[in-house]
Amino acid sequence: MAGIVVLSKVENGVPSRSTLELLGGAQRLAAGLQAPVGAALLGQGDATSLYGYGVEIVFRVDHPLLKEYQADLHLIALERIARAAEPQVFLMPGDSLGRDLAARLAFRLKAGVVTEVIDMDVEASGKIPRFTRQAYGGKASAVMVPKAFPVVVTLKPRTFDPAAPAGDKQGREVSVEAPLDPEQARTRLVERVLEETTGVKLEDARVVVSGGRGLGGPEGFDPLVELARILKGAVGASRAATDAGWVPSSMQVGQTGKTVSPDLYVAVGISGATQHVAGITGAKTIVAINTDPESSIFKAAHLGIVGDYKAILPPLIARCRELMGG
Ligand SMILES: Cc1cc2nc3c(=O)[nH]c(=O)nc-3n(C[C@H](O)[C@H](O)[C@H](O)COP(=O)(O)OP(=O)(O)OC[C@H]3O[C@@H](n4cnc5c(N)ncnc54)[C@H](O)[C@@H]3O)c2cc1C
Fold first, then answer.
1. Is residue 272 within 8 Å of residue 295, measured between CB atoms?
2. Which atom of ligand 1 is nearest to 213's Cα?
3. Are strands 129-135 and 140-144 parallel, antiparallel or unpaired?
4. pLDDT digits (tens, 9 = 90+) for 153-192
5. Peptide bond into 150 cis (omega under 30)
6. Are 254 and 236 in contact (CB under 8 A)?
7. How far is the CA of 269 from the centre of ligand 1 (A)?
8. Which domains does the chain carry?
9. Long-range contacts of range 241-245, CB-CB < 8 Å, 24 or more positions apart?
10. Taking the model in full, what pTM does it have?
11. pLDDT above 90: residue 215
């Protein structure tokens, strides 16, 4: 098979959100390249739902050692799949797994690698895919063209629309052998610490209320938590706030944090550095609250409120409570 292979995850019989985003990108590329779409699947799980999103072949490695994520073992399995599938493009999510494995997989395949892709299309010849990624912290974009195939590509989360169902289609599954051995694992999981999260996930939230250094300390996040609760949203933060230890780093939004695409993003006490704005370009409406009228965040914002958040948030919260009944 020459075409596009998507590293896929199926949860309870349904492709995960990030898999649907990859399949959305793959469908676009497949139409331009006139190439089939395949899926790489590790472990067990019903793969039939993938066929409904344009996948023609599922390449699966099933092995007890793949139950827990271990980079070296997953890498061996993915290499086996890539060699069996011989794709032009191997698509992976730009999350921690993609960051862990994409470059290593490309090295093993002697392939090129393009990471954090935000857009893809196909050159007029219909043969060469083009991958766009942000440069200079989002101030510019770079278009990359592979000089040879295969190419391993990671897609920035939340930048591609999830694939639309492609009808009730049939596909086939190919079992790929990967002789895995615990000795091949060069690291060992010692402890797993689950962070307690309540409410809606930051990446999935329709409303995100984020705070930055301008909040002055961890207690500054209290009214943001309250506003997010009333609006049924999630709380995010700038890197200055997470670096200061005011909130966990899992709440960081931006180039090196999470990418969010809510209907409403409220930035409180955030200056709007390009690295922060790179994570919110998918937001439909951005509201900024900042004491400095010259702050860069007002260039990104659709609505700007100049003033101290301590004066602005209480009446805003009270009004939202009235309207939302929270
Ligand atoms: C490689 C790299 C990657 C990075 N990745 C990220 C990233 O993913 N995410 C990210 O956020 N940053 C990232 N950064 C850091 C980024 O460059 C900025 O330093 C950071 O975003 C600044 O955070 P801030 O806006 O909270 O703080 P500041 O820039 O200090 O801004 C604070 C703002 O609060 C306002 N303010 C002060 N008091 C009040 C008040 N009482 N009420 C209202 N407003 C007030 C001020 O006017 C100011 O505009 C990265 C940097 C680098 C070099």
1. yes
2. 26
3. antiparallel
4. 999 988 899 999 988 788 999 999 999 999 999 999 899 8
5. yes
6. no
7. 8
8. 4-184 (3.40.50.620), 202-324 (3.40.50.1220)
9. 241/211, 241/212, 241/213, 241/215, 244/213, 245/218
10. 0.84
11. yes
